[in-house]
Design brief:
Elements lengths: L1 E4 L4 H12 L5 E4 L7 H11 L12 H6 L11 H10 L8 E3 L5 E3 L3 H11 L4
Parallel strand pairs: 1-2
Antiparallel strand pairs: 1-3, 3-4
Helix pairs in contact: 1-5
Length: 124
């Protein structure tokens, strides 16, 4: 299992605390330093079952500078969104937890983190 975090994020710290409390085996990826490639973002989106605009933090300064709220949310614009996420990793919603069974969740709630744990432990 891997968790993409920003250590300054309270939701990320909460997810890490829950994973630790459950004795989970995971790897931390500080995605602002170890920025995901466009291909990695595509892979995570498939695992999440989401589109790039679904995991974009639209209130970030970079989102406003890019004018993301006005970007089309359609298949033709998908690569443009992914390029923006790779170029501005602060725009990526966090934390993202990937389980070894191929699933992933945006772990912003304890329930979502527990869902990832259940997948990791083969419970779902």
């Amino acid at each position: 299992m891997e968790i993409w975090i920003n250590p300054a994020c309270s939701k990320c710290r909460s997810a890490i605390s829950l994973l630790d409390a459950e004795g989970a085996d995971y790897t931390v990826r500080r995605y602002l330093e170890d920025v995901p490639t466009e291909d990695e973002i595509r892979q995570v989106l498939v695992r999440l079952g989401l589109e790039p605009w679904d995991i974009t933090r639209t209130q970030e300064a970079a989102a406003k500078e890019l004018g993301l709220k006005d970007w089309p949310r359609d298949e033709a614009s998908r690569d443009r969104w992914i390029t923006a996420l790779a170029g501005h990793p602060k725009l990526i919603q966090r934390p993202i937890i990937t389980a070894t069974d191929g699933t992933a969740v945006v772990g912003r709630t304890d329930e979502a983190v527990r869902d990832a744990l259940a997948h990791e432990q083969g419970g779902l």
